[in-house]
Structures are given as structure tokens and as C-alpha cells.
């Protein structure tokens, strides 16, 4: 018999407490101001009558700039994310302690990214602020209405974010940018481990309900920034540069996490759980074909561009 959300929250509480202790021991304290080259800063136009931003001032290539803006705008919706997970997990006990700790760490990422991009004039600050206003006014609402669905989603999403940050830093060609994004990516990896381990415990408590949640998330997954204006075009630029694409999503996000949960080795599923696993397998096979086709076409485009 499927456990209720309240029962799952209660049964997982000791796991949350253990994972929280592990997280606090592994997390390294760091300070955003130490990652910002403040000496490069100067006044902008406006109140201080400085120099207006021009694209010629940035050293970062377009694809990396697009990815940086998407990553930062995604971080900006933190108030909505906090509301979603606090509403689901609660604000009491180990769950509540984790919710607030996670929120504080994510807020640090947005602060550091915005300071770096503004001080180094990497992106247009006016366009960035306008995009922030539009994106935050939309807010964010999880498409998964169960605790298991949300746990499965963040297990994949935190890993996807880590990879996107690391690859953005690499493509930026900017040492300071890469250093900052590597630091942020290390935090995101710890967040992924927390959620991934929680869902692994959920598989032991209710394997069928958990399998159905994982299948739903994998087959409908979208990054939380998908509501950003022009996201489809931005995502294509990011994919064409190899920062984050379907190939990476399958090979470095979906499959490693699914292997950690041993989803295809489980022997304790009922008919519904088995049906969900079969749907997952079919979807992964289709995704493999689509990912291979995308990479092939991208290589062909690059070959034509090289002449």
C-alpha cells in the first residue's frame, strides 16, 4: 500500500538529519566578495554619470554570456523555489533546517554571479535587470505536486546545474569566471548528493510510488529557467556550444543518478512500478537516439562552418 506524503516525510526525517549533518561537515565556507575583481569596477552611466555598457567591454564569448545570464536569472527566482520546498517539506525539524540552509547557499550563488558580471562588465546590466524583473514577476511553481516528484526533480536538476556552471566557466575563457563557477558548482554537487540520497531512501520505503515519481520527472524534465524570455533560443545557443545539451543531460545527469538508485536492478516492484520502469526504459532509448542525432548534426554544422 502506498505511503501518504505525511508518512513519507516522517519516515525520511532521520535520513534528512543524517544527510544534513554530512552536508554541514562537507560544505566549505566561502565568501562571494573574495571572488570578485573589485578593482576592475567603475561607474556606469546614470546617477554617477559614468560610462555606459558596450558589448566591446566584455571578454566573454556570446554563448558563455547567454549561459551566465540564464544561470543567474534561474538563481533569481529563489524566493519562489523556497516557497515551493518549504510548503512541501515544512519548516520544522531537520527538514526545515535543510530548507533554510539550502536557500542561504543558493542566495550566495546569485549574489556572487551578479557582482562578478556587473563589476567585470561581462553583460549588459540594464538588459539583465529588465530580464530579472520579467522572470521574477512570473515566479516559479513546481510541475510536480508530490514530495517524491519534487525530490526526484531536484536530484537531477542540481546535477544539471553543476554541469552547466562548470562548462560555462570553461567556455568563458575567463579565469575569474571559471574559478567562481567552479566554486558554485561544488555547492550544487553537495545539494545533489543530499537529494539523491534522500530519494534512494524513499525507494526503500515505497519503491513503487518512488519509481512512478522518477519516471514522471525524467520523461517531463525541464530546467527551472525555462520560463525565461527567449529561453528556447538561449537553450539552443547553449547546446550548440556544448555547455549543456541532450547528450550531456542523458550521459552525465540522468544515467549516473539512475544507476546510483539501481532502478533497473530492483526486484521489489509491483505491476504499476514495473510498468513505470518500462516506460522509463523506452524513454531513455528514444532519448539516446535523439541525443546522438543532435550531436551528429552539430558536428556537421561545425564542419561546414570550418569550410
From TrEMBL:
Arranged from A to Z, the UniProt key words for this protein are: Fatty acid biosynthesis, Fatty acid metabolism, Iron, Lipid biosynthesis, Lipid metabolism, Metal-binding, Oxidoreductase
Q: Give a yes or no for keyword Lipid biosynthesis in this entry.
A: yes
Q: Could you list the residue ranges forming a coiled coil in this record? A: none
**InterPro entries recorded:** Fatty_acid_desaturase-2 (IPR005067), Ferritin-like_SF (IPR009078), RNR-like (IPR012348)
Annotated Gene3D superfamilies: Ribonucleotide Reductase, subunit A
Give the family, as the similarity comment puts it.
Answer: Belongs to the fatty acid desaturase type 2 family.
Q: What is this protein called?
A: Acyl-ACP desaturase
| Source species | Nonomuraea longicatena
Amino acid at each position: 500500500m502506498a505511503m501518504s506524503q505525511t508518512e513519507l516525510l516522517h519516515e525520511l526525517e532521520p535520513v534528512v538529519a543524517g544527510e544534513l549533518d554530512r552536508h554541514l561537515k562537507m560544505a566549505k565556507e566561502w565568501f562571494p566578495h573574495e571572488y570578485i575583481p573589485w578593482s576592475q569596477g567603475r561607474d556606469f552611466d546614470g546617477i554617477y554619470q559614468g560610462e555606459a555598457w558596450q558589448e566591446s567591454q566584455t571578454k566573454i564569448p556570446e554563448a558563455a554570456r547567454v549561459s551566465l545570464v540564464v544561470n543567474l536569472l534561474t538563481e533569481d527566482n529563489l524566493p519562489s523555489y523556497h516557497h515551493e520546498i518549504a510548503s512541501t517539506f515544512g519548516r520544522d525539524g531537520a527538514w526545515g533546517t535543510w530548507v533554510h540552509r539550502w536557500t542561504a547557499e543558493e542566495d550566495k550563488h546569485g549574489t556572487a554571479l551578479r557582482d562578478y558580471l556587473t563589476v567585470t562588465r561581462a553583460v549588459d546590466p540594464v538588459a539583465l535587470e529588465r530580464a530579472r524583473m520579467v522572470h521574477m514577476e512570473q515566479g516559479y511553481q513546481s510541475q510536480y505536486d508530490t514530495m517524491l516528484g519534487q525530490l526526484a526533480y531536484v536530484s537531477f536538476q542540481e546535477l544539471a546545474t553543476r554541469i552547466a556552471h562548470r562548462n560555462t566557466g570553461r567556455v568563458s575563457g575567463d579565469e575569474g569566471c571559471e574559478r567562481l563557477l567552479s566554486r558554485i558548482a561544488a555547492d550544487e554537487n553537495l545539494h545533489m548528493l543530499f537529494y539523491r540520497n534522500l530519494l534512494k531512501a524513499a525507494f526503500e520505503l515505497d519503491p513503487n510510488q518512488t519509481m512512478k515519481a522518477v519516471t514522471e520527472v525524467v520523461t517531463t524534465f525541464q530546467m527551472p529557467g525555462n520560463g525565461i524570455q527567449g529561453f528556447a533560443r538561449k537553450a539552443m545557443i547553449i547546446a550548440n556550444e556544448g555547455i549543456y545539451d541532450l547528450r550531456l543531460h542523458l550521459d552525465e545527469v540522468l544515467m549516473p543518478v539512475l544507476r546510483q538508485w539501481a532502478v533497473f536492478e530492483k526486484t521489489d516492484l509491483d505491476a504499476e512500478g514495473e510498468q513505470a520502469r518500462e516506460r522509463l526504459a523506452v524513454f531513455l532509448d528514444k532519448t539516446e537516439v535523439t541525443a546522438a542525432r543532435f550531436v551528429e548534426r552539430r558536428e556537421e554544422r561545425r564542419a561546414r562552418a570550418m569550410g
